Amino acid sequence: MQIADTRGQQCPAPLIATRKLLKETAKGDSFQVITGSRNAFDNISRFLKDNKIIFKVREENSAWIITITKNEEEQPLLNIEN
Amino acid sequence: MEVDLLQMIDNGGCSAKIPPKQLEEILKYLPLPEDPNILVDIDSQDDAGVYRVNDELALVLTTDFFPPVCSDPYEFGQIAAANSISDVYAMGGTPVTALNIMMFPSAKLPLEVYAEILKGGSNKASEAGVRIIGGHTIDDFPPKYGLAVVGYVHPRKIITNAAARPGDSLILTKPVGIGVILAGQRMKMTSENDVNLAKSLMKMLNRSGAEVMKKFNIRGATDITGFGLAGHALKMAKASKVAINIKMKNVPLIGETYRLVDEGCIPGASFRNLDFAEPDTYFAPDLDYNLRMIAFDAQTSGGLLICAPSGYEDKILQELKNAGMPEASVIGNVTKFDSKFLHLTNL
Description:
The complex is a heterodimer of chains A (82) and B (347). Helices cover 30% and strands 29% of the residues of chain A.
């Protein structure tokens, strides 16, 4: 699984990494984006929800680890585990 | 002296505004003074306040300041001044005098930088016919600069947010995408050409646009700044108690704005602006996601959004183009209020 660790990077770098991997990943596959910024996490999750993309998030050591699965087709909304 | 002001900030220009939702909460607790001579106050969320002196004269009062939007201090001064003065133009006024507002880290930056920012501001003020007659500086990091501007307007010729009427067409005088382009610059995704385009748009005074508005006796307009095209359109729709419809595919964009957004270069301010406007906005189910986010992109020294009475749009558009705004476009219209103040569609 591809992982983009964007800790220490300014907004909107984490969202840019998310969109890049979303384009590169095959349908049905997953990837991870890690950010240390609450704002970046909020923006990414808003982006994913608006685009009906399924994801899970884990908060760990002041970082958000977001696991995103590229839709086969349209999928149900957000699924947060904490 | 090589100083890059952009290295000092996360959010420059109007992107650094407090989120609109929070601002609305705070303003609820601010008592509004009552005086029959106050012709426009914060109640209509307008661009500037207007105070009647006599039957022939009212004063337009406004202030704006923000952290750097570009690397060069002189250009920053020019842009901040153009942005501050714009609110007077948006109200149909003639800007006359101004005071500098400066926050400057005197221990961290050479004083030449301070002087360059002020020179840039003074240059733009002169171009607008505005005399800067004083100012105030606080030691602070990062630097912030702007003007408090006073203008004149005839009390019966004020242009406001609250005068959009069903049947009007909406004309936008400058392309949007400033926030995206500036964020792209920080991410090193923007071409130099687009950065220069954005800077020249931010430096451009809204004076010619205001002159065209006066010529056609326009009553409804606003300028597009930190809350984005959609945010300012919404404020206008609420103040006018109408619905505003924006066709996002007709909105002119700066350079590669669309591609940058498609690659995820969406500034945080866009999400905050979206949060604020969402309850009052209808999004067409097929609305392109990138265009939806561009609608909320925070502009610095953006264009005028003009309510053109039906039948006059083409003439006004032509005048704007002749006056140096080649990208001026009809981007939507005004209809009677129905359940949502703002409607965003592709076309």
